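Agenda item 2: glutamic acid complex prediction
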Amino acid sequence: MSTDKLISQRLSKIAPSATLAITQKVRTLKAEGKDVIGLGAGEPDFDTPDHIKQAAIDAIAAGKTKYTNVDGIPELKQAICDKFARDNDLAYTPGQINVSPGGKAVLYNALVATLDPGDEVIIPTPCWVSYPDMVKLAGGVPVMAQPDPEFKLTPVTLDRLITPKTRWLILNSPSNPTGTAYNRDELLGLAEVLRKYPHVWILTDDIYEHLVYDRFEFTTLAYVAPDLWERTLTMNGVSKAYAMTGWRIGYAGAPRPLIGAMAKVMGQTTSNPSSISQWAAVAALNGPHDFLAERNTIFKERRDFVVDRLNAIEGISCPNPDGAFYVFPEISGLLGRKFKTDIEFSTALIDEVHVGVVPGTAFYAPDHIRISYASGMDELKQACDRIADFCKPLV
Ligand code: PMP
Ligand code: GLU
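Presented output:
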């Protein structure tokens, strides 16, 4: 059988992850000895804090290296309940917690556990690359909400998109790729619409919760609208805040029947997340958090620097977002002559001047690019110089 025929129809409708692809390309060019600067990766350049690494080493030494409960060890579930209570004023019990191998897996397990063919999932755009494809893989239909002003879904748009087939709304704040975040009033506005449609569940992806700047106050839907708690999956993870992308631990709180269904998926697919990573995550959530403020000061400096430098380039317009570690400038002023699309622009940027960014099209927002500023200041300076030189002849 030829490989074409081997691949399922379901998978052939799925795009490869553009964010991972650009990161891979940067890695390959670096391995070839090229002086490439990768601003494509969605991961902190900081190291995992030492006390977290030590907890993993201790777990190995203590022989905590066997299968665990499928959806998380009790100690981690308790640490997650404590985190939700401490940071979000949300009450969950350990039976209402799922731990999966990464935030990505939490989302996928939830979608597989709940979507029947034809079920719709509303995804505000610009959105993280993986949401629509995960929905399709799980047999559902992604319903892409066109961008509203400031890249935030408005109650009017939400109301217009809900149908009897809507199963989920996915909300990601602060957002990948734009960095924009919903404040309390904006969430209350959406909650008012959601109250009218009791069949719609809400998946809040809060993975960038701790990465907010300029005193922005992070909050989450199940907290601002407690009556919606019953149909909200509050998802989070240790990848971004604790610089633990390689450890693969994500988690969520939700009513028990959904958590049970997700555990059923895991029991027949991945089984538990790595036992060692789970112990490291216990140390992350229960341990000191002062490093977060220090790192955020650095992230904010980098954000301000990159936003200023980009806005100084003719043809680029870059908002200053509240959180995450991405900026999402519009580049339409640079398109139309040498490059027609953000994809052509981004491809040439890495090929010609060796700066890796992700084209906006990957996030359902053409004419933009996503730049991750989770890199050292020297690299960011060099990258901005190269981008400025690259853009000069394009206007
Ligand atoms: N949600 C968003 C919005 C993300 O950017 C990421 C990063 N890949 C994830 C979820 C998943 O993170 P991870 O699987 O590393 O926990
Ligand atoms: N979330 C990150 C990004 O958007 C990591 C890569 C991925 O999992 O997509 O770049």
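Discussion summary: DSSP finds 15 helices and twelve strands in the chain.
Owner for follow-up: CH.
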